[in-house]
Amino acid sequence: MVVASVTPERNERIRALGIPVIDLSWRREHASKLIMRACEEFGFFKVINHGVPKEVITRMEDEGEEFFSLPTHEKQKAGPASPLGYGSRNIGFNGDSGELEYLLLHTSPVSISQRAKIICRKDPIKFSCVVNEYVGAVRQLACEILEMLAEGLGLGEKGSFSRLIRDTESDSLVRLNHYPPNSTTGGNDITDALGRRNGNKIKDGKGGRIGFGEHSDPQILSLLRSNDVDGLQILSSDHHGGGVWVPVPADPAAFFVNVGDALQALSNGRFVSVRHRAMANSYSPRLSIIFFGAPPLHAWISPLPEMITPETPRRYKSFTWAEYKKAMYSLRLGHNRLDLFHADDEGENVDFIESI
Ligand SMILES: C=C1C[C@]23C[C@@]1(O)CC[C@H]2[C@@]12CC[C@H](O)[C@@](C)(C(=O)O1)[C@H]2[C@@H]3C(=O)O
Ligand SMILES: O=C(O)CCC(=O)C(=O)O
Ligand SMILES: [Fe+2]
């Protein structure tokens, strides 16, 4: 059986490097070329002039702030996250934790309206409207970016990627992460489901508090936006197979775009899913909102035929999104779960999936 690899402990290196910035008001072919390059080299870039209205963002951020400012016992009514709902410190089901609390929601309007009744008892209809409006605008931005990537690859069908997250049965998620300030500065602590306070700080190699540990996003494309508090870092690989953590300065006017594992598989490895994490080392609370664009559960993820050539043979097996989710929820946050679906491990991922 194949066992997914966990990235080994690194002697951590942190370096300020330039992050690709794409201005969506540029000429389309120019922007598309730069987006392609960013997805090939880093799997990460920042977009400005993205067209998501400021008011839509502000309304969503206000709902998040209002929810996280509720007393703990009120927030806990929307939890524990399983995986959807309110979570505090615990991430997933396999022992990962971080210095944060969060709300994880499915983006289907039916699911949002059901959750809204518990998350926002005061005005669930307003909460649903605000989230639906945000999701609609950000999904549209994700689709535009995916269509530019399809054009950049010269695919006959520009909707090859975007149709998966436009689908009404798309399994896309939206997550609000709240990282409280460092408690030694007098900030408000968070408690986990058992009421434990954050006494045991989760540290990186340099004494920083890890808010959300190293991982890649499993979906197709993630769009992250945060308030003006820093914390996000991406792992940039050097040419010796090592990596360096690159801090990403906060920019509330921008969206940060992550290539996810599913896009790496669809593009046969041409686009790389970026490993990233969030530090919670600040004096101010950090609020991030992430849209994870995903296919429907029954959709097949398979390298597109155009991406398989004699020079670039098939790297990944075909799998459904449901199979991938099953594998990911059985693994830890930091696992390289796409490793389980390499084309050269004939039949082995099937054993793995059947055994979980
Ligand atoms: C530990 C886990 C949490 C996670 C599911 C997983 O088993 C491995 C991937 C994690 C992740 C990272 C990106 C997103 O925040 C997330 C919602 C996702 O789709 O995969 C989380 C999962 C989660 O928190 O439920
Ligand atoms: O909150 C952040 O900045 C990053 C969180 C993240 O990577 C995630 O929720 O998948
Ligand atoms: Fe992430």
From TrEMBL:
Gene Ontology biological process terms from the UniProt entry: gibberellin metabolic process
Location of the Fe2OG dioxygenase domain: 169-295
Keyword terms, alphabetized: Dioxygenase, Iron, Metal-binding, Oxidoreductase
Transmembrane segments: none
Region (Disordered): 176-197
GO molecular function: gibberellin 2-beta-dioxygenase activity; metal ion binding
Catalysis performed (reactions): gibberellin A1 + 2-oxoglutarate + O2 = gibberellin A8 + succinate + CO2
PANTHER family for this protein: 2-OXOGLUTARATE (2OG) AND FE(II)-DEPENDENT OXYGENASE SUPERFAMILY PROTEIN-RELATED
Protein name: gibberellin 2beta-dioxygenase
The organism of origin for this protein: Elaeis guineensis var. tenera
